[in-house]
Amino acid sequence: MDSSPELQRFLQEEKQKAMIAEMVGKLTSECWDKCITSTPGSKFSSSESTCLANCAQRYLDMTMLIQKKFQSMQQ
Amino acid sequence: MDPFSSPSPSGGSSGQTIPSADVLMDQVKTQLAQAYAEEFFETVRSKCFTKCITKPGTSLSGSESSCITRCVERYIEATGIISRALFSAHR
């Protein structure tokens, strides 16, 4: 079987999806540890759910900051 | 016919035929979905064991069982919160 472009595209897509799934999984794990400090309840408190959302967004901010820092270090 | 070969066009030769692209893509998707599910299961198991089983006794107590149920629900919910926060952040 030759590597059809359809198959290549499919594999690229699945690779992307896997990378995203890995990031979500890893981030959920770390943010859970940071934000859910007591015994899980029947729903999240507003501070817990806010913490989780903040955690993900701060992770993105931090990623950009690190990228900028690396770029400035290369010059 | 084994699941890894597609039907051969003639009844002729025996032996493995190379799977069609569609069959292959379906197999990859199925295997990936299964791998994700297994990993998620393992993560939830680990997290909820940490949170809920602090002093292992001779059996699971009622409070431990309900803690675990809530923990699983909350972890799934947390996954949703994180996903939405990651993908609605427009920079």
Automatic annotation (TrEMBL), chain B:
UniProt subcellular location? Mitochondrion intermembrane space
**What are the UniProt keywords, alphabetically?**
Chaperone, Disulfide bond, Metal-binding, Mitochondrion, Protein transport, Translocation, Transport, Zinc
A Gene Ontology cellular-component term? mitochondrial intermembrane space chaperone complex
The domain of life for this entry's organism is Eukaryota
Q: Name all Tim10-like domain ranges.
A: 27-86
Q: A Gene Ontology biological process annotation?
A: protein insertion into mitochondrial inner membrane
Molecular function terms from GO: metal ion binding
Explain the purpose of this protein: Mitochondrial intermembrane chaperone that participates in the import and insertion of some multi-pass transmembrane proteins into the mitochondrial inner membrane. Also required for the transfer of beta-barrel precursors from the TOM complex to the sorting and assembly machinery (SAM complex) of the outer membrane. Acts as a chaperone-like protein that protects the hydrophobic precursors from aggregation and guide them through the mitochondrial intermembrane space.
Subunit and partners: Heterohexamer; composed of 3 copies of TIM8 and 3 copies of TIM13, named soluble 70 kDa complex. Associates with the TIM22 complex, whose core is composed of TIM22.
Family per record: Belongs to the small Tim family.
From the Swiss-Prot or TrEMBL record, give the protein name.
Tim10-like domain-containing protein
